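Form 7-S
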Amino acid sequence: MEDRTYTLSQTRYEVCTTIHHWQLRDLVSAGDSSDEMLCVCDSSVLHYNCATREVTSVLSLDWCPNSMTYAHGILAAGGPSSQLFVKDLRDKRVLHRDPLGGSVNNAVHIAKPNGRLMLWACNNDYIVKVYNIESNSLTPNTSFRTPVPINYCALSPDGRYLSCVGDCSDTMVYAVREGGYSRIQSFRQAHDTGISTAWSPSGSFLASAHQDGTLAVWDMRASAPVHKYRLNSACRNVKFSPGVLDLMAFAEHEDLAHIVDVRQWSAVQHLNAGCGQGHDITGIAFAAASDRLWVGLDECVLAYELDTVARRAFGHGSLC
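Output:
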C-alpha cells in the first residue's frame, strides 16, 4: 500500500459514544449539514453541532441501541430484543416505537428508492424485514428469509440490489423485484463473519468488511474483485464518500481507521484515531457534502477535514 494524505486537519470533540455489542459498531451518523453528527451514548441518541458545540438528546430510550442510522431526516435505532424506534427529526414526530418480534436488530438501513422512503431491519432470525416509512407511521412492505443471520445490509444507489453480510464469509446480493427479494450473486474473499457492506455512489463498486480483518471490494460491472485489504484486527465498518470525491473509509475494532483512494486502490491514509491506546471505534460516517469524516471513539468523536479541492482535481482514474 502507498501512504497518502487526504485530510487537512483533525479536531477532537468531547462527545461520548458507546457500543453495546462487541461486533456491532455502526453507531455514528452524519447529520443534515457538515457541522452535525449523531451518535449513540448509553440509552440515548445525541445530536452534536460542532459549530455551536451544542449537544442535544434527540432520543431517550429505556434500552441501549446496538444499531442506529440517520438519513432523509429519519432517525432509526434498533435494540437487543427486537426493539425499533423510528423518529422524523425534522418534524419531531415519532413513527414507530415497538419491538418487531424476534431477536436482536443488528442493523437498520434507510434509503429512498424511486422517491419512497423505506427501512430495512437485519436480525438474528434469518429474516430481513422491510418497511415503508409513511408520514405518520411505519408500515410492513415485505420480508425475506436468508441462509444465515444478517448483520448488515445496504441498498444500491439505483435501488435494484440489496447487499447483505452476516454469519458467513459470503457477501450476498439480492435483486429487488415487485414480488420480493431473490438472491442472484454471492462473493467470497474472506474466511469469517461479515459485519458491514456499502456501495459506491454510482453503484459500480461493492465493499464488505469482515471479522477476520478482510475488507474486500468488487467491481459490479464485471462481478470481479478489484482489491482486498488484510488488517491485523477485525474490520467493523466501511463507507464510501458521497458525491465525486471517490474515497472509501473503513474502521478496525480499535484505534485505527483508513481512507482509500477509489481511483487508485493501493493509495491509503492510515488514521491512528485512538493513538494506540486500545480505544473502541464506535462508527465512521462521511458528511453529506463529503468535506468531513467523523470517527467515533469510546471517549470522544474526531472530525477529519477532507481535502476536497485536491480530490476534485481528478488526477487519476475515473468516477466510482
